[in-house]
Amino acid sequence: MREIGHFIGGKRVAGTSGRFSDVFNPSTGAVQAKVALASPEELRAAVENAKAAQVKWGATNPQRRARVLMKFLELLHKEYDSLAELLSSEHGKTVPDAKGDIQRGLEVVEFAIGIPHLLKGEYSDNAGTGIDVYSMRQPLGVVAGITPFNFPAMIPLWKLAPALACGNAMILKPSERDPSVPMRIAELFIEAGLPPGVLNVVNGDKVSVDAILDDPDIKAVGFVGSTPIAQYIYSRATATGKRCQCFGGAKNHAVIMPDADLDQAVDGIIGAAYGSAGERCMALSVAVPVGKDTADRLMTKLVARVENLKIGPSTDAAADYGPLVTRDAVNRVSGYIDIGVAEGATLVVDGRGFKLQGYEDGFYVGGTLFDNVTPDMRIYKEEIFGPVLAVVRAEHYEDAVKLVNDHEYGNGVAIFTQSGDAARDFAARIQIGMVGVNVPIPVPIAYYTFGGWKASGFGDLNQHGPDSIRFYTKTKTVTSRWPSTNKDGASFVIPTMA
């Protein structure tokens, strides 16, 4: 049985805690590897490596750090196909979807290559008589990223690229469910010229997470996962004085206006709701048709599409989606479908008990569609994280806006309409962090920031884009005056620029 350890000091090392977790092939249900779960002592060893290596790396000029990122991109492109297959084998998403996972991560690396420009400070000449004022951005030191199973390439790269470009050393704690791609990414960074110790990958569970949160040498923590854990990490990390950005759960709505191009809307909803088996924080899990006629027409089109979804193993490039990540995930999603039925929602397409011929032990759930869902139901209020779409009918546009704004989560939302007035009003008034207009998954491009509102995000700064540079640096402002022959004597009042 293959064992996956950690990556510390520029090389793979075996785990020493004696604790392991199974890594499955979700398509077949078989255990394919065991991953070591780090002890606090192993985490501390990684921090010591990072702390020692960061001093020189932080003093390396930004252009040279950018060259390491450029070389890393070159190496990753050479392994693009093999990495996608590796990712797919542990996560369960199809290989084409896995390539998208990698690509969205690469785009943030491309953004971070511009670090010489992004780190430029401000300068004011002669702000006061003979006084110049300027600012500079400097690295924090050792930082940590705690990343989820559903994007094992993209989200680690969202953390790594800006953190390393800014001159920090990074401790990455990826999901123990699919750890192989983050380990390979670390190796590629070393091949690209990153000094050993600047990036360490520590595999583990809550034990290693708590060690990260309590370690005095880790200055900042970035997290993506469920809202309860995001709240826990944010509270514990900030209590120890760490800078923290935590992104939690979501319940993303798609509002379908009566004037929408319904075929376009259905195409968007189907892909966004069921792609990657719904295991995306930006998945559309609620459709909100406005008006009875819109709802009836939408349901007619949706039912046919959901019933004909092609589900297959992750190696099937023609599949619309593959298995969920674990058997526990299957049981959780099936349990939510049971709850929806018990709550009185209309189960139009039932994905429970789906079996794929030849892969009967795989972790599959069929496409599921509910109609007549109401805001008081758990299947509306809670994140299911599976291939389940709930249709909540709204009588008027204002009802739809209120529905979205009243929800606990505020990650992403989309509106489908041909009206510029409606789209502009919606974008201005909706209380959600990321908005799509006829775009079902409104993930911003790399040089804008990604982040949700309300219970979907904790912390003042978002992921990638300019916010990532602010998060991974601290600003120092220098006020300077050089001695002159004009001696004014000591001053005992606060200095001003008057």
Main sheet record: 7 strands, mixed
Number of strands: 23
List the strand order in the largest sheet: 15-16-17-14-13-19-20
**Proportion of strand residues:** 15-25%
CATH topology of the largest domain: Aldehyde Dehydrogenase, Chain A, domain 1
CATH class of the largest domain: Alpha Beta
Unreliable sequence segments: none
How many helices does DSSP assign? 16
Radius of gyration: 25 Å
- Summed up, the domain count is 2
Overall spatial form? globular
Structural class: alpha/beta
Percent helix range: 25-40%
Walk me through this protein's architecture.
The protein is α/β, with parallel strands linked by helices and 498 residues long. The protein folds into two domains: 2-248 and 456-478, Aldehyde Dehydrogenase, Chain A, domain 1 (3-Layer(aba) Sandwich), CATH 3.40.605.10; 252-437, Aldehyde Dehydrogenase, Chain A, domain 2, CATH 3.40.309. Helix content is 39%, strand content 22%. The protein has 16 helices and 23 strands. The protein is globular.
Name a few traits of the molecule.
498 residues, alpha/beta, Aldehyde Dehydrogenase, Chain A, domain 1, 39% helix, globular
